[in-house]
Amino acid sequence: MPKQPLATALLAALLFGAAAPASKALLQALPTFQLAGLLYLGAAIGVIPLLIKQRKFSFPWDLDRKTAYRLLGAIGLGGVLGPLLLLFGLSLASAASVSLWLNLELIATVILGFLIFRDELHFAGWSASLGIVAAATLLSFSEGHAGVKAGLLVGAACFCWGLDNHFTALITAITPAQTTFWKGMVAGIVNLSIGTQLDPYAATFQLTTAAILVGIFSYGFSLVLYIASAQKLGAARSQIIFSSSPFFGVILAALFLTESIYPAQVIAMVIIVISLALLFFEKHHHLHHHQAIAHEHWHHHDDGHHDHSFPGMPRPIYDSHRHEHRATSHAHQHWPDPQHRHGHDED
Length: 347
Prior knowledge:
By secondary structure, the protein is mainly alpha-helical.
């Protein structure tokens, strides 16, 4: 793993960006359900090294009911439906366009946060959202009738992942790596089982291995690297760097799938860059209210919400131990990171 956090974040973005062109190639030989299952089984395998490093593991049936429901929502929407919708859309459009459409996940997360989860959204956020939606619409019409259908499918996938992001952000009893493991394992088995019922499994060992490796690197290792960078750079800065992943997807699609880059895609990329800049560099203050509570969950001590010390544990590193929150209110300034919980729900 690269020691420089910037390199780590860029590598995470590169690996995730490679998912669309790699999946486009695999769809030529694998049915959609089977490929979705193999990719997410690979994601589960990819985070196992991080689980071993954390030395703590929880089973879903041991979680409290609220956390279990959130995990179930993340599995169903983010692990089962999201990948299927993406792959169906990918079968109808170029990998480059699909890579750019994936920016809709960030916008879905932000807007859902505003509408459902009480997150704040200001003028720059609305402007960025409209810009990315406009870019997605331009891409859809530039690909013809199939492109419109593909854009709607990828947009629906991003809506599922937007809800998944909020469910995942509210899960504090287990780490993101554990959430990814259970999401990948359960969703992978479900989609692969459905896929083998719809079509006989005819993939060769080499093709099966290739699909699992894409899952390991693009969905598993990319998360591990992203978490490593976020612990050094902070979530907001890491998210800014990670948002370059769709552009890596466009470059890789041109290099390895020999897809042409059309003027509409270039215009869309410019609009997306401006929109992301508006979104990420908008800072605002807001007030947090914390009720007094004692519990155990995964956190690090310099996140603005945990000011206690724990002997021998560096402040930026995630850890789980029992601690108390005093009843406090405080205001602070931050980037509008989709994973930043304004409500700060405490289980």
